[in-house]
Q: What sequence folds into this?
């Protein structure tokens, strides 16, 4: 998970803001979400990546943006608010790799998970890293994901790094993908 949008504020003031955001989404989903997403851009994110993200957003169905936001924060079964996150997170059964910018966010991730679940946290404490860490420093992000996957036995380092001696992707290059012919 990359800086997931859960454990969000659920004070009365914050809930009023969440409902106001949903109302703004209903008025103009693309304009509201564009401003929301721009707020997640950090100084390490280059202009081409910013354009790609905003272009993708503009191509997204507006109703899908509304539905996603409501399902994350306000609908029954939502997980985005602080009082809802632990209930949903405690249902996890697979190892977790979370990328966060602060110790507090990493600690909140650990606190939400079942006691026996393997939770790995990568803290990107350097000032300026934000939500799109995978685009801000793709080499670092890839190294950390590969190392985690190898440690957990999801794939071998040779397969994931393309070192298997074949120019063709191997089955474990894309975890869960069918083998290529």
A:
């Amino acid at each position: 998970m990359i800086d997931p949008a859960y454990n969000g504020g659920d004070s009365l003031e914050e809930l009023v803001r969440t409902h106001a955001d949903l109302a703004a989404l209903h008025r103009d989903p693309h304009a509201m979400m564009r401003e929301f997403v721009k707020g997640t851009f950090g100084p390490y994110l280059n202009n081409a990546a910013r354009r790609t993200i905003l272009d993708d957003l503009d191509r997204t169905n507006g109703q899908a943006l509304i539905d996603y936001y409501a399902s994350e924060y306000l609908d029954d079964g939502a997980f985005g608010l602080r009082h809802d996150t632990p209930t949903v997170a405690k249902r996890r059964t697979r190892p977790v790799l979370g990328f966060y910018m602060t110790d507090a966010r990493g600690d909140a991730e650990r606190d939400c998970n079942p006691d026996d679940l393997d939770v790995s946290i990568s803290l990107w404490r350097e000032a300026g890293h934000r939500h799109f860490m995978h685009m801000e420093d793709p080499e670092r992000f890839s190294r950390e994901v590969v190392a985690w996957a190898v440690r957990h036995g999801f794939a071998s380092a040779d397969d994931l790094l393309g070192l298997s001696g074949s120019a063709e992707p191997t089955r474990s290059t894309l975890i869960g993908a069918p083998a290529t012919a």
Summary: Residues 163-181 have pLDDT under 50 and may be disordered. The longest strand covers residues 96-100.
